[in-house]
Amino acid sequence: MYLVSWFLQRELHFSPKSVCYKDEGTAPCKRNGGKKNQPTFCGGTRQVKQPPTVKHIPFSNQTALIYFKKKLINILPKSKNGNQPEKDSDAAQSLFVGGKMSAPAATQLLDLHSARALVDSVEAFLFDCDGVIWKGDKLIDGVPETLDLLRSKGKKLVFVTNNSTKSRRQYAAKFHSLGISVSEVYVIGMEGIVKELEQAGFTAIGGPEDAEKRAEWKSNTLFEHDKSVGAVVVGLDPYVNYHKLQYATLCVRENPGCLFIATNQDAVGHMTDLQEWPGAGCMVAALRGSTEREPIVVGKPSTFMMDFLLQKFNISTSKMCMVGDRLDTDILFGQSSGCKTLLVLSGVTTETLLHSPSNQIKPDYYTTQVSDFIGFLGS
Amino acid sequence: MLSSRTVVAVASSSSFLPLSHPAAASTSSSASAAAASYPFLNRRLAFSQCHTNRDRSIIPKPQRSRVMEGFKTRAAAAAPQLEDADALIDSVETFIFDCDGVIWKGDKLIDGVPETLDMLRSRGKRLVFVTNNSTKSRKQYGKKFETLGLNVNEEEIFASSFAAAAYLKSIDFPKDKKVYVIGEEGILKELDIAGIQYLGGPEDGDKKIELKPGYFLEHDKDVGAVVVGFDRYFNYYKVQYGTLCIRENPGCLFIATNRDAVTHLTDAQEWAGGGSMVGAVLGSTKQEPLVVGKPSTFMMDYLAKEFGITKSQICMVGDRLDTDILFGQNGGCKTLLVLSGVTSLSTLQSPTNSIQPDFYTNKLSDFLSLKAAAV
């Protein structure tokens, strides 16, 4: 393979026209200025999903095959319709490799052309909040202007968050359909969950009022729990303690048919702007450890919340774009529902993590922060 | 092609950790990956023997074939009731007893236990007591045995608190590193005896968090291991401290004394156990712990080495299928389930149960009554 790759490098370096599918009338492509160890690679704009991130893959036999495939595309006759490279590449593949080479779908860095295409193709934008709109309690730069810009283009904006410490109506209404006979709910969480449940007509016990309770045990004393609790809801709780864990454990294990519901399973989050703190995933995993049961998760990446959004807005999910900072909740949520996905690097995910070989979740696009839209759409 | 397959294998176990993190390797060998990358860890037999409660398919390598054979035959046949106690007693040299549910229940001794233990000792059997409860140290357990009128030596007791300290000693945990403890006094006392510095424990139970802008929790960069066990003073501060140490201190170990879902703190009911606290730290770090208590065979290997016993000459007596009996099976010893604890006959014989001990009996003192019947 070494000879082939050496050959390819030379060929591609000296080829008169590099492999470039630039569209007529857009900005000229910037060629990679003839660096020896890289193919002449079009840094310009493309419509097609050729892997522009091929330069991120360490040079290997697989890379050599991709370069060879590109070379064959140059040789093969181009069809009238210039936008057919995908088909040609398939032909090249079957010619050369004898089968489909499945590379993971690549993530595109958002740029001028793709941002405009994205905004034109979707009708609604779903934004995660922590790490996209704000960080802890500080607003991220440029966000208000970006949201105004998107609104002025007639896009619907929705804010979808896993944070259950503030009120969210959707959880409450859905609990009804989950457990019709549930009337009492034990909560490990903050006021948000308690308020929502009460608004929906449930009796919520636990929550912040159990923060100061201490569990004591002596022989012949019993830890009492309410036998009519029909569900335990677990969310982020900075005042979690053994009393709450024990109460919830007894409810789930001993009350027949008791539901175990988790608002979300985020491992960590930016509860303050300076560092990450354990998220609801911590409390949920604690209860999973003592009950040995898996929870029903209502937050991202479960597509639970999507049902509401579909009903409310009556837009198909392919015309929605999910904007988030977490791969395993926001982006997975978007992908599972069939939306387009945009990752912003202003939150917990770094570019290294996104491109790391152990990461299997590839958003459609990624960019530094939400206000980049101003730059792309502004003029 | 090879590269893509390898990538998939790594991703399935820990998708969201940077590859440079020691735990980013596959879960079963996270321990050995850490050992390879960091100078103060070395690969000892005990190291590779640790496995988690959940991942029961990971059998310790040296005993894999023997235990797998055991699993095949045992899984097929339902456990018979013990009839010939003498035959069992004669076939082994050592008895390992679980404590809660076998010897005592809460603070009450189970009937007939002192006489049974005396009988076994008179027949020259070695007795060892292994418990997953990390709230007391060996010495404190010795006192509990004494209070209940049992004649037991401190050296015969192995609590998971002791196991955590013994494990750290066995990997030559550096003197300049500290341990952060999410647990109770027992762990602290054992670390003291082993000469290991520690932070945390019950006193952190009063510390409060205020999630407001500008608030920053500092953590000691010298913490080289976080030990998590049952903790009645569990709170958010401890989870955050432990999480910061594990995520940010390079090579920091995450050790769990045990992962029992529930435990009998009182004889009247079950209480959320160590599995809860360990679950919390696992939920926020997304890292699997090294478990030193049952069903990991660390304690069995330790005492086999300490006393020079062959594992096939041991009989494990316990009341829990997923810790005691699995512990015995993983170690390659005979297993006897007693129904005086948390497991009932219906649980044992339920079609969803896949763990079958060699024998079962109602309680420990059956050794005396069955023996008498045989005569």
TrEMBL record, chain A:
Family matches, as Gene3D superfamilies: HAD superfamily/HAD-like
- Record flagged with keyword Methyltransferase: no
Provide the reaction this enzyme catalyses: 2-phosphoglycolate + H2O = glycolate + phosphate
Q: Which GO terms describe its molecular function?
A: phosphoglycolate phosphatase activity
EC numbers: 3.1.3.18
Enzyme class, spelled out: hydrolase
Q: Which SUPFAM superfamilies match?
A: HAD-like
Q: Which NCBIfam families match?
A: HAD-SF-IIA (TIGR01460), PGP_euk (TIGR01452)
| Name under which the protein is recorded | phosphoglycolate phosphatase
Q: Where is the organism placed in the taxonomic lineage, from the top?
A: Eukaryota, Viridiplantae, Streptophyta, Embryophyta, Tracheophyta
From TrEMBL, chain B:
Coiled-coil stretches, from where to where?
A: none
Ordered alphabetically, the record's keywords are: Acetylation, Chloroplast, Hydrolase, Phosphoprotein, Photorespiration, Plastid, Transit peptide
Q: Please give a single GO biological process term from the UniProt record.
A: photorespiration
List GO terms (cellular component aspect). Answer: chloroplast
Q: What is its EC number?
A: 3.1.3.18
- Localization per Swiss-Prot or TrEMBL: Plastid, Chloroplast
What SUPFAM superfamilies does the annotation carry? HAD-like (SSF56784)
One MF term from GO for this chain? Answer: phosphoglycolate phosphatase activity
What CDD domains does the record point to? HAD_Pase_UmpH-like (cd07510)
Enzymatic reactions = 2-phosphoglycolate + H2O = glycolate + phosphate
Q: What is its main location?
A: plastid
Q: Which family does it belong to?
A: Belongs to the HAD-like hydrolase superfamily. CbbY/CbbZ/Gph/YieH family.
User: So what does this one do?
Assistant: Photorespiratory enzyme that dephosphorylates the 2-phosphoglycolate produced by the RuBisCO oxygenation reaction.
**Protein name, per record:** phosphoglycolate phosphatase
